Amino acid sequence: MLAAERRDHLLGLLAREGKIVAKDVAADLGISEDSVRRDLRDLAAEGLCQRVYGGALPVSPAIADYAARQSVTPDGKRQVAAVAAALVRPGSALILDGGTTALAVAHALPPDLACTVITHSPTIAAALLDHAQAEVFLLGGRLLKHSAVTCGAAAVEAAQNVSADLCLLGVTGVHPEAGLTTGDAEEAAMKRALAARAADTYILASSEKIGTASRFRVLPWEDISGLITDADPCHPVLDQLTAHGVEILTAG
Q1: pLDDT under 70: residue ranges of the chain
Q2: I want to staple 211 with a disulfide (CB 3.0 to 4.6 A). Which of 16, 82, 86, 237 is the partner?
Q3: E strand or H helix that includes residue 42
Q4: How far apart are CA 210 and CA 207, in angstroms?
C-alpha cells in the first residue's frame, strides 16, 4: 500500500472509529508498527490527529487561537451557555473559566442577577461590566494571549484563595479514553486549580469537542459534576460517558 493510500486509510479509520490503534492497523495492513507511527507523526504535524500512546485520536478544532474560535459553532456555544447560566443561583459564587463558550455564559447571565463571579479572563470580566448586581473578581497572573486568560504560578496561587458554589470550565477535547483535555500545560493546571475551589464543576463542551483530544489532561471524570453539551444525545461518545456515570446536561 502506497503512503498516500495509508494516509487515506488512517484518516478514514479515525473518522469511523474515533481512534487509531497502531498495532491493529499494522496487523491489518501487514506493515510494521514503526511505519504506522511515522504516518501518524506526519498526520499530527499537519494537525490532522492527536497522537497518544499506542496510536492517535481525533484532534480538537478548539485549539485554534481565541479570535479563530469565536467563529466555531457559535449557535452551539450559545445553547450550552443557556443551560450553564441556568445553574447559577442568586447570591451564589461562580468560578467562570475563560474561552468563547464561557464568554457566551457571561452574556447569558441575567443582567440583574446578584452573584459573585470569579474569573481569570479579562474578556469575561469586561463582559460583566453592565451586570450591576454582579461582583466580579479578576484573578491576575501571566496573560496567555492564545486563550485570553491568566495562567502561571501567580494565577494558581490567587485561585487557591477563593471558594465558590459552582465552577463552569471549558476544555478543548472530550474523549472517553483521553478524558478532558486542553492544548496548553499551564492552562490545564489553572483549570485544575479553579475546579478544586468549587463545590460543583460542570464542563462546557460544544459539539465539535466531543470525541476529540488535545495534548494535556485537565481532570478525571470523577472530579466533575457533569458535562453540558449540544451534541446529539445519541452520540456514541455520550453513550460511553453515561455508562461510566457522567451526568450529561443536553443543550438545544
Answers
A1: 1, 62-73
A2: 237
A3: helix 33-45
A4: 5
